[in-house]
């Protein structure tokens, strides 16, 4: 079944902060790309709810960490 996310957060980051965000997430084992103002996640086609939650948790924590320093 499709997943719906009821909570959205907008954070504006400059290019330096975006690089820091990507580096912080990668240090935690999560790799994703940035294109303009979009973060591109490509989880495996088969991923459980727990793993997806962990992935999104790392992304959220990295965004919050980077936004505090930006």
What would you note in describing this structure?
The protein is mostly helical. It has helices at about 15-25, 50-70; strands at about 35, 40. About 50% of the residues lie in helices and about 10% in strands. It has a two-stranded antiparallel sheet with strand order 1-2.
Task: Indicate the topology.
Layout lengths: L14 H13 L5 E3 L2 E3 L8 H21 L1
Antiparallel strand pairs: 1-2
Radius of gyration: 12 Å
Number of strands: 2
Order of strands across the widest beta sheet?
1-2
Binned, the helix content reads 40-55%
Beta-strand percent range: 5-15%
Number of contiguous helices: 2
What oligomeric assembly is this protein in?
A: single chain
Short characterization:
The chain has 70 residues and is mostly helical. Helices cover 49% and strands 9% of the residues.
Notable characteristics:
70 residues, two-stranded antiparallel ribbon, 2 strands, 49% helix
């Amino acid at each position: 079944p499709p997943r719906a996310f009821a909570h959205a957060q907008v954070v504006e980051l400059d290019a330096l902060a975006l690089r820091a965000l990507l580096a912080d997430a990668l240090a935690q084992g999560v790799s994703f790309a940035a294109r303009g103002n979009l973060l591109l996640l490509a989880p495996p086609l088969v991923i459980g709810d727990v793993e997806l939650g962990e992935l999104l948790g790392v992304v959220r924590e990295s965004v919050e960490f980077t936004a505090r320093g930006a």
